[in-house]
UniProtKB/TrEMBL annotation:
Pfam families: DSBA, ScsC_N
Organism encoding this protein: Yersinia hibernica
The protein's name: DsbA family protein
Keyword Signal appears in the UniProt entry: yes
Keyword entries, A-Z: Signal
Signal peptide region: 1-18
PANTHER family registered for this protein in UniProt: THIOL:DISULFIDE INTERCHANGE PROTEIN DSBC (PTHR35272:SF3), THIOL:DISULFIDE INTERCHANGE PROTEIN DSBC-RELATED (PTHR35272)
Record carries keyword Signal: yes
Thioredoxin domain location: 58-237
Length: 241
């Protein structure tokens, strides 16, 4: 019966030159057969939708894999992008984040926890200044600090992420003072890094933060640590094959 249903759909969707047109009586009977088939086999539509979704996911995964292969340097090896975790990682996560994003502020500590619990994992931080001028300012100062004093970056990064709500000039200055980092002026390189991050995000279809590239998966939003860990385990297993 399922085969009959597929054939009927194919006939109805075929172009006019592919077959002679149905008579009104035949069209009525075809519709009746389709209705009868759906009533007798209600799972057909669900199975068809699932098959279509699987094909769409596979196509999207192939596109992502191709993009990753073509942008290895910019994603994983850019010296202007802060990173923590393993120096010789088996798996590198790329975190697109914003110092003004409330969801990033809850998700970032999970990435730090992950890197501590999985010594074969590294995390690259890609600031995306989606939320106003202070997003740009805080990101550029953090990137400049990484470029000039990389050993001081993590403390400043954590302090910026710890603030509830949006940053302003006073909160950014307070973060510098509290962490005792060397005062820096935003560098031209930091602006170049942000432009690259925005270009990568656009090509990846990222529309908000956080967004995390884990192996061959792009994970939108702030997921739980359990979900994050499960994805990482799967990707580590694939990387080990």
């Amino acid at each position: 019966m399922r085969i009959l249903f597929v054939l009927l759909i194919a006939l109805l969707s075929a172009p006019s030159w592919a077959a002679a047109p149905f008579t009104p009586e035949q069209e009525v009977r075809i519709k009746e057969l389709i209705r009868e088939t759906l009533i007798a086999n209600p799972d057909i539509l669900a199975q068809s939708v699932n098959a279509w979704q699987q094909q769409a996911d596979e196509a999207q995964g192939q596109q992502l894999s191709q993009f990753i292969a073509a942008n290895q340097q910019a994603l994983y090896q850019d010296p202007g992008s802060p990173r923590f975790g393993s120096a010789s990682p088996q798996l590198t996560l790329v975190s697109f984040t914003d110092y003004n994003c409330p969801f990033c502020k809850t998700f970032d500590p999970l990435l730090e926890k992950l890197a501590k619990e999985y010594p074969q994992v590294a995390v690259v931080i890609k600031p995306l200044p989606f939320k106003g001028e202070s997003s740009v300012t805080s990101a550029r100062l953090a990137l400049t600090l990484w470029q000039q004093h990389p050993d001081q970056w993590m403390a400043f990064h954590q302090r910026l992420m710890a603030k509830k709500g949006f940053h302003d000039a006073s909160s950014i200055a307070a973060a510098q003072k509290k962490t005792g980092v060397t005062p820096v002026a935003p560098s031209e390189q930091s602006l170049s890094v942000l432009r690259t991050n925005l270009k990568l995000a656009d090509q990846l279809g990222i529309q908000g933060t956080p967004a995390t590239l884990i192996g061959n998966q792009m994970v939108p939003g702030a997921i739980s640590y359990e979900q994050l860990e499960e994805i990482v385990k799967q990707q580590l297993a694939q990387a080990g094959k």
